[in-house]
Structures are given as structure tokens and as C-alpha cells.
Amino acid sequence: MKRNLSLGILIGMWVLVFATSATASAASEVLDRIVAVVNEDIILLSELRERMEPYAQRIRQQGFDLDKERQMIFKVREEMLNRLVDEKLTDQEIKRNDIQVDDAEIDSTIERIKAANTFTDEDLRRFLEQDQMTMEQYREKIREQVLRTRLVNYQVKSKIVITEEEIRAYYDSHPEVYGGKLRYHLRNILMRVPDFSTDAEKQALREQMQQIQSQIEAGKSFADLARTYSQSPAAADGGDIGEFAKETLSPQIQAALDGLAPGKATAILDTDQGFQLFYVEAVNRTEGKSLENVREEIHQKLYAEVVDKKFLTWLEDLRSRSSIKIIN
After folding, report:
1. What's the whole-model pTM score?
2. SS3 track for the chain
């Protein structure tokens, strides 16, 4: 049977620990109190402190000034309290839907965790000891996680359908991922700028490159001009420096090549090697991935995105239908 507790009564409720002395009188000290009421359940300050303490310790170790430290710890407190509220709500839904898990599934889950981390029984116990957790407490944590996963499956995942149209639309809108990689066959003309060149000397070299650029625009052979003027090791080959995947080129060169068709040259680039012109000999694209080969990958990606959105929507709806009181 659910307990109906008024807020006034709950605010007045304190969990007291009595410290007895050798005398007949006893002094009491408030060590715990209620910080939130979630429908018929309560969240205690001790629960909140236990959850946030590892994060608070890390903040204190960062050496922030006192005001900054307090602000960050207060933010962590808010986040942890909200998380505890969400957990109470989901636990209530687990009970309402009579979702259960038996010991055999807990054992199986722990075995999978051990296998994933190549843990022996002794390794796991040693790990738990470092976190000051008993095996019984760990099993209870696993039970909570499995139950909450089942609740999400029941309330959210089972109602999600990813259509073939959605998969194809995602595939078509991501050619950079599935459509193959661009490769540029390039030639270049390099005019080196000697170390310690004056501004005037550097400007003279730029003007020389501009004259070469004008000849290219007038229809002169880039390869012939490279053989005549380029100071690149590839000059003798007409400036042919080979084929490159787009993503392996520097951002500066990628930007200069963007949209250039074969037979076109870039603007003059001021690079760490000197002034350069690049000529696009050919543009190739490697074979992309077929929709058939990536259908399952895209399905999983879209499914995960929808699960996250649907879960947040479901949780917000659950919050709106619940009685949640935060007690500062």
C-alpha cells in the first residue's frame, strides 16, 4: 500500500542518530535529513553526499579558488540530485510494471563483465575492495542496472521502428562517409623564399609567381612552366607530385583545391616551403560503401539516436506526471 505523506510532515521529518553517554541524559545530533520527495519515496542527504563525494573530491584537488570550487560543487550537487530523482522515478516504474530479474541473470551479467575486463574472481573482489564495496552490494548495483535496462527496453526501445526510407536518407546525406574518398592527382610549382628574406625580396618572388600564374591562365602548359621555373624536386617531371587523398593534405591546400576541376590551378599559396601553385591533373574517388553493406551500421546509429531522444522525452513526461519536491 502506498503511503500518502504531506509535504508539511515530510519537511519536519529528520533522521536522527542519538549519541548516548554514561549519564542518564542523551544528546541528539542531526546527521541526516530529507532533501527530496519523489511521489511516495524520499531521498536522504546521506544518499546525495555519497553519490557526489567522488566528484567533489576531484574538484577540491584542482586548486580552484574558494568561490569557484563552491560553484562547481553546487552544480555537481544539483546534477546528482536530479539523477537520484530520475532513478527513484524509474525504480517506481519498475515496481509498477512488475519488472523482475533473477539471480541467474545477475550471475550471467557479472560473468560478461569479468570476461570483458579479463577479470578473475579474485581480480573482481580486489577491484571492489578498492571501491570499498562488498560483493553483495555489487550484485545489488548490477540488479538495479539490469532492471533499469529492462524498463527502457519495455517503455522506449520496443516502440522504436527505423524505416528503410530513414536509412536511405541518412546514407544519401552522408556521401563524405559512404561515398568514397576524393583523391587528387597534383602538379605544383614551388618558388622558395630564402631565410631572412626582406619584405621587398619576398614581394619580388610573389610577383614572379603572379607572372607564371598569368601564363597558366593564358593557356601555357603547367608542366612546361614547372620544368622551367619550379624549385621543387618534381620540377623535372613537370611538377608531378603524385596522387593524394584529400584528407591527407593540409587544410590550406584542401581549401584551395575545393571545387577545382581537372585542368585548373589554385591561387598562389604562401606555404612554409615558399610560394606554391597547385594544378589539378585529375580528381578520382575511391569506391564507396554500398547501402547493403552499411545498412545495419546506419540502423544502429539511427536507433541509438532515437533511443536517447525517446528516453529523455519519456523521462520528462514521467517527471511531469509525478510529485517531486526538492527540500533545500
Report:
1. 0.50
2. CCCCCCHHHHHHCEEEEEEECCCCCEEEEEEEEEEEEECCEEEEHHHHHHHHHHHHHHHHCCCCCHHHHHHHHHHHHHHHHHHHHHHHHHHHHHHHCCCCCCHHHHHHHHHHHHHHCCCCHHHHHHHHHHCCCCHHHHHHHHHHHHHHHHHHHHHCHHHCCCCHHHHHHHHHCCHHHHCCCEEEEEEEEEECCCCCCCHHHHHHHHHHHHHHHHHHHCCCCHHHHHHHHCCCCCHHHCCEEEEEEHHHCCHHHHHHHCCCCCCCECCCEECCCCEEEEEEEEEEECCCCCHHHHHHHHHHHHHHHHHHHHHHHHHHHHHHCCCEEECC
